Amino acid sequence: MADFLYYRDDAPHEEPAVTLDVFLDQPDASAVRLEAGEDARKLLPHLDRVQLVEVAFPKFRDGRGYSAARILREAGYTGELRAQGDVLVDQMLFMRRCGFDSFLPEAEIDAEVLKATLERYDYVYQPAADDAVPVWKLRHG
Prior knowledge:
By secondary structure, the chain is an alpha/beta fold. The chain has helices at about 20-25, 65-75, 90-100, 110-120, 135-140, and strands spanning about 5, 20, 30-35, 50-55, 80-85, 100-105.
């Protein structure tokens, strides 16, 4: 099993992810890998069978994966959503807000640094794919 950071209650999905084209051609596949620039909306008709979507981050500054995560979560996807690649510790809080719940970074991440990063802010200011309630809504209902 890969050594990755995991934030779900259930066990990680271990079936290898196939490319989007292969996934769309194989009706029994349940794990898919989205490369940067691939359209996550192509998965929407198949959300009932998808257990893992691995989203590639070829460079830390490539934000297209955030959009893919948000599209899938807003469409009702509840399976594992894994960020893979050039994933930095200071991005993980925002990735979790977009819906990622597991991470497979290329570089090792110190667990204490990650914990401090994820617990740094008590409040959020905008709604996202996670369950956090924005501070303005807490104040004004």
